[in-house]
């Protein structure tokens, strides 16, 4: 799974090195400040069993059918912020190979958000590293992010972290060859919830702050209110992970609506690609209601309901990858 690392010319190397140095300096200053107050600094590093993909089947399905090329440059564990609790946040950047002598061109970027019930998963497990490599192979600069997890952190920690990652990439766009006006988001399962919320929160232009210009969400639990979960006849498992994520022991959680992208939609929001399997662990009603709400809000939508019970990037087979890639190229194209 480890790709051959290729780099561009000397100018590209200097830009990349400058960006990493700046990020490292920022993180170091944050570490110093926290250390002064005796707060230990820790990178998110789940135990191996907790770092595994949310795709639990051992079968070669979905994103696992993608064969990564050897021409992707991967920069791992780039710090993008340090939280008050001492958590050092990092991301991996997968970039298309630069061609020596070619004119440098700022590329669209996609923030990749792993799943795992908001409580497990990792930006660099085999399945999500493959997502990062696939996006880069399609001509995007992909940034696979880690974010704080349950039980150490509950809502809104994860969405705040993901938003910070977008802001970091936009601020440091030149260092990674990114066009700051063309940043999208891709997420699956719990990461689909976060990608959708990232797209729906806020109003106005899609090229500032932590706004994104296109969203792909697969199998996301989108509407987290008790009413919505009960309408879907959701499993006790889904009720349980939602309650843990929202920091709520039972009943209606006060933060449920705030954590639901469907509650934030307006006509200024970016185009959405919503993908879901008919019989998977997250009820398909979540995708269907979200799609209807997007259309009502006047938000462009591409909806893909696929047969079977595979989940998240387990449904990202060649056919769906083709659709998702076309969606991202359409909506992140240069103006």
UniProtKB/TrEMBL annotation:
Name the record gives this protein: Acetyl esterase/lipase
Pfam families: BD-FAE
Alphabetic keyword roster: Hydrolase
A Gene Ontology molecular function term of the record: hydrolase activity
InterPro entries, per the entry: AB_hydrolase_fold, BD-FAE-like_dom, GDXG_lipolytic_enzyme
Chain ranges of the BD-FAE-like domain: 105-294
Gene3D superfamilies: alpha/beta hydrolase
Coiled coil segments of this chain: none
Domain of life: Bacteria
